[in-house]
Amino acid sequence: MNLTSCLKGVTILTLIITTIIATATASTCTTTTTTTSSESHKFATAKSTMTTLTTIDQKHRETLSFLDDLHRKYPHQPTFLQAVEEMAISLVDLFKDPEQGEFYKKAFMVMTEPERMISFRVPWMDDEGNMHINRGWRVEFNSVLGPYKGGLRFHPTVDDGVLKFLGFEQIFKNALTGLPLGGGKGGSDFNPKGKSEAEIRRFCESFMTELFRYLHPSTDVPAGDIGVGGREIGYMYGQYKRLTNKHGEGVLTGKSLLFGGSPFRPEATGYGLIYMTKLAVEDKLKRSMEGMRCAVSGSGNVAQFASQKLLEFGAKIISVSDSSGVLIFENGMTEDDLKVIMDCKNMKRGRLSSIEVNVSGTYIAGKSPWNVDVKYDLALPCATQNEIDLDAAQLLVKNGVLGVLEGANLPTNAEAQEHFRAQKVLYIPGKASNAGGVGVSGLEMSQNAQRLTWKPEEVDQKLQDMMANIYKLMSEEEGKGGTLEEGANRAGFIKVAQAMKELGWVY
User: N or C: which end of the chain has fewer CB within 10 A?
Assistant: First the structure.
């Protein structure tokens, strides 16, 4: 073959490859345009989060350059990276410390990598006899203070990155409780919505069949989270008992009082949030909770019991919501309204739109408390991560919001947090304000170990003391310079870092 023939062959091959690439690109573009709205939202959120990460920390870029390797390894886990960077920004002064700075950087980097990640398939059968396969995970993040502790989430958006974000936050939340608890998180991309009772039971049993071998009261003790309530915990605990022939073991918390649960566990996260809110409002705003206009998002466990305690303290609840829309109570929710909402969500498992005629509020489809033009004194996001973005934060501030206290995990994105700080809005992160749930889970573990059940008033008092102690820790750290939010992050981090040093895990 002569040179001319070779060159012709190369040219033809190049044209073929170019055509293939163009076709693939066009196919990809077509696929992208037909992506479902939920997927599009997820991709947009990821892109937005990555943009935020590279914008928010410019003034700290040099100090936080030790995180660059983490960004290179996990660009596909934007929510996890968001949680890491937000935590790191609040610790910048520690990283700059001339004596301990390098140690704190090393300790922080160790904390960003889970000790162990368990991934497994979860096969289950629907009511028509069809087999389905979902993915399950357990992220055993950090055990320096005690056994891995954190909830299980069943939701179609769950993946390893979301669970890493939740597990990372859990380390510091658990540290703030003062209890010997490590951090972990788990769950599945299974969607409980629209499933029958039997389908949910079969899924829970299959999930526990894979997970049970990794659980022990001294190793890993899961609880509930989004999509996992008392019913699901009961089904999983029943399967654990069948598989192990061990009874009374505290390997799950959030159990029924009939088989080892704790009084006030269902109420703990919501009640704890409002105990913390009351302390902060009285201390920082010099106000009473009486008559405060409070926006609550979500309508699940946390939102329900937060609303219950708000009513007890005389506050006005202006909103609750679900993924389909929001109920607005311009003159405040009544106790009868709350009973209807709890019956709808806990018994009928319905949507808020179905009860508009039975409550005093007005239902607005497709909206959340954060994108309706209503005045609130306090914002209490209790739904999910990143529900308050910059636009929502600007609207809240325009309407005179005084404080934002998180009932969910990381419900306020980085840009919104920056806006609240700039506007001097009282802001307390979820790792402090919603720590009551895991705190009472720890108390449930203690009761299981003692083979006792404490009186409800005893558990409630311990919960109040716990939230007061967390607020005290935040305030003490705040006194060294910074905000309550930074105080919460520093207090949790220093406790974990010191424990790692004393165990010889970081040196």
Answer: N
CA dihedral (271, 281, 384, 256) in degrees, to 10, reads -10
- The secondary structure of residue 214, as a DSSP letter, is G
- Render pLDDT for 245-284 as a digit per residue (tens, 0 to 9): 999 899 999 999 999 999 999 999 999 999 999 999 999 9
Of the CA atoms within 13 Å of residue 370, those in its CB half-sphere come to 25
With beta carbons less than 8 A apart as the criterion, state whether 163 and 185 touch: yes
- Three-state DSSP class for residue 161: helix
CA atoms within 13 A on the CB side of 121: 5
Strand partners, 116: 140
* Total count of residues recorded for the chain: 507
Contact yes or no for 296/303 (Cβ under 8 A): yes
CB 374 within 8 A of CB 318: yes
β 148-154/183-188 pair status: parallel
Q: Identify the pLDDT of residue 482.
A: 83
**For residues 126 and 147, what is the distance between their CA atoms, to the nearest angstrom?**
35
Provide the pLDDT confidence category of residue 359 given band limits of 50, 70 and 90.
very high
How many other C-beta atoms lie within 10 A of the C-beta of residue 118? 17
Contact 430, 437 (CB under 8 A): no
Q: What residues are labeled active site?
A: 185
Instruction: State pLDDT tens for residues 419-456.
Output: 999 999 999 999 999 999 999 999 999 999 999 999 99
Please give the model's pTM, rounded to 2 decimal places: 0.86
pLDDT at 368 over 50: yes
The SS3 assignment for 408 reads coil
Structure tokens at 300: 């699940």
The DSSP call for residue 300 is: S
| Residue 403 reports pLDDT greater than 90 | yes
pLDDT of amino acid 58: 67
Task: Dump pLDDT digits (tens) for 22-45.
Answer: 444 333 333 333 333 333 333 334
Amino acid of residue 13: L
364/374 Cα distance (integer angstroms): 12
